[in-house]
Amino acid sequence: MLKLPPGTRLVLASRSPRRQMLLEAAGLKFEVVEKDFDESWPGNLQGKEIAEYLARSKAGQLACDYPSEETVVITADTIVWCNGEVLGKPEDYKSAFRILKAISGKTHEVITGVGLLNGKRIRIFSETTLVTFDELTDEDIEYYIENFNPFDKAGAYGIQDWIGITANTKISGSYFNVVGLPVNRLLKELNDFINK
Hints:
Blueprint: E1 9-13, H1 17-25, E2 31-32, H2 48-62, E3 71-82, E4 85-87, H3 93-103, E5 107-118, E6 121-133, H4 138-147, H5 162-167, E7 168-172, H6 175-179, H7 183-194
Parallel strand pairs: 1-2, 1-3
Antiparallel strand pairs: 3-4, 3-5, 5-6, 6-7
């Protein structure tokens, strides 16, 4: 169980309703700050380096706004890494279709980089989960895109949605990481970070 020192304020810097739901389910009291972050990264980074870079960048972009040591800011960025390529949030129907075709019948990595900001201290970590899907037919993909809203999700899918329930064959690692936040690891890292 997470033990926060009295007066400690938790801030989640994320618009993701799934991250907010996960922290609420874990029993945490927190505030939400929504900010438009620069989510670009140097082209030489790969896989977890990208997720960690983005989490660090977001923490850095908030450092001046939250200088107090009584405040801990949580940043996060989830990417899907498949065949050496980041499969981000789809911009439109066509890109969602392309992304889902790319992960069809393959194992891909879902990587969440997490940043913890407390005054001048920053801690960055990442969690990787391997996810495998069955071969998806064009009809499966079209049905999913038309009936669910994959446009705010890395990899164009929610593991908790129809496509995850019906087509996911294997998960190796944290399920909640795929939803959007590796809660178990986050609680351990937060406890260590705050109480040091």
